[in-house]
Request: fold
Amino acid sequence: MATNAIERKSKMWNLWHGCHKLSAGCKHCYVYRGDSKRGIDSSIVSKTKNFDLPIQKKRNGEYKILSGTMIYTCFTSDFFVENADKWRTEAWEMIRLRSDLRFMMITKRIDRFYESLPEDWGDGYDNVTICCTVENQDRVDYRLPLYKAAPIKHKIIICEPLLERIDLSAYNIGSWVEQVVVGGESGYYARPCDFDWVMDLHNLCVEQDVSFWFKQTGAKFVKDGKLYDINRRLQHVQARKAGINYTRK
Reply:
């Protein structure tokens, strides 16, 4: 019963797989780590067997995915990766057709946003959240001006993996961002994440009334100047125990 309830709330839709490392946050990509264990070349972008998942139907003609489900879209690639240009039009058609579902995607390629849109995008689809990743100040200052100006109905900034102290104060996030998500880097070669950096972002979100989610500590976590090695299964738990998540008023 509980499992079915969870399945109804969300689904993963990896319509294509593979990507190209683009910036500092990609260095220890979890997709590359997982693929290497299976002998898969992550730099090859390929369409998956689940490409048409949102429109798959049961024998009685009903959609397999129930109305209202959150669809986490393209989490083993980037929805705007160049190699998927030939499939994206069809992907947008499925997203438009299933307007009763909510689609969330995360991109490092917000600079390819305009050339990747469907013709009827207008000021955005109501059922689509496009999240932009910024892992350091360099990417903040390059991506956020583009992201802020982009016609997207629902926007979330993803600071993960957070690689250094970053300052979002110049971007008046309270006027256009729904949530900021923060997390450290996982994996054996993870770079440290400092709790002070996390709190800077938390404090800004509270000040500007933007929801804040401390998602995970990462494998190397610094607090009060001390470096901690955090077991993978505890990284989300320890972040939650910090008790700093915030919901906008």
Summary: The longest strand covers residues 102-107. Residues 1-132 form one domain. The chain has two domains: 1-132, 160-249. The helical segments are 2-9, 30-37, 85-97, 137-149, 195-208, 235-241.
